[in-house]
Write a structure and sequence with these properties.
disordered N terminus; 14 helices; Ubiquitin-like (UB roll); Catalytic domain of cyclic nucleotide phosphodiesterase 4b2b; alpha+beta; rod-shaped; single chain
Length: 439
Amino acid sequence: MGSGSSTYRPKCIYLDIDGRIQKVVFSKYCNSRDIVDLFCIATGLPRNTTISLLTVDNCMVSIDPTMPANSESTPYKVRPVATGQLSDTNVYFISDFFPRVFKINELKTEVANHLAMLEKKVELEGLKVVEIEKCKSDIKKMREEMAARNTRTSCPCKYSFIDENKKLTPRRDVPSYPKMLSCLEHMYHDLGLVKDFNINPITLKRWLLCIHDNYRNNPFHNFRHCFCVTQMMYSMISLCNLQIIAQPECNIFSNVTQEQFKQIRQGIITLILATDMARHAEILDSFKEKMDHFDYSNEEHVTCLKMVLIKCCDISNEVRPMEVAEPWVDCLLEEYFMQSDREKSEGLPVAPFMDRDKVTKPTAQIGFLKFVLIPMFETVTKLFPEVDEVMLQPLWESRDRYEELKQLDDAMKEASYTYPELSDIFQSNIKFAQKFSEE
């Protein structure tokens, strides 16, 4: 008996793949794209490859569910036409387009960098203006302070710094405050410190001004003394060919690492404490022990050398010409006497070398030269012979001169006891001798 429906059979297609027969079966529910994908998979081509189907006599066959079936003896050949990849034309077009895109991106980057540079420049210029205005303000304040000092009528010092009737001011042979600051700034640049520590020059100016502003107006330990010590260290570094290894706006070490800053700070503390005369013998003896086998690669040896050098500079006034050195002695003694006078008034013990009733200029300087300055500079000369003529010779000459003055003082005292009427004559002779030696 028959029925209205017939049994469905899948369609079989035979393909010739390089001489090998491959059978492909698909149902009537497959669309053309599905069948193409099956043929591509069967022939080992990518699924998105465009192919054509040929009979044994090279006739093209439509690829769809109604395509005619074939047999093993009449297989179809699969010929790839194109893949889903880009054609040569498209590839060429894109390859030409991408460089343009990259060039646009490069141009954008270049423009952005240029804008950033301009913005930075504007910012720096703005900061420079601010810094300049700050420096102008600082200089103005400094000038006002100097003007205020010039109007003071009383000075705790025995000799006023601005008393035109005294020879103290011109004989100190130290530049004015603005010139001192400029000289200090030059020293930092000349020694390479600004470059080595990447110090902002404006910050250096501020730092020097800040140091100046925080110094007390003592007769001796004032900013002029600070300048003289720095100048002497600069001279020793230059003479001996030595190598130099707060407030945010005044921090000249802002561009060094935290570890470097710790080392610098510790070094500064060590050198400041080395200027304490209570440690003089200890430091000098330690340096003498290292002299015979001094090793620049030994950190302890180098630290000891730096301590001795800062000590030399701190008390180096007698190295300078007599007309420069002697006013400093007057200022130092006056500072000592001011301290001892107050200690006496408060019932405190007084150091003998600070007592105005027991100390004279010659006696104070002879002992200081013979037992402190000369031995220390003689020791330094063993390591740096250049120091002998420039610094040690002036110390010997200064010692000899004060010994002559002491002899005159002693002779005057003896004469005043024996022949009181000759006291004024001796006093005049001594003043004449001092004046003659100064000229």
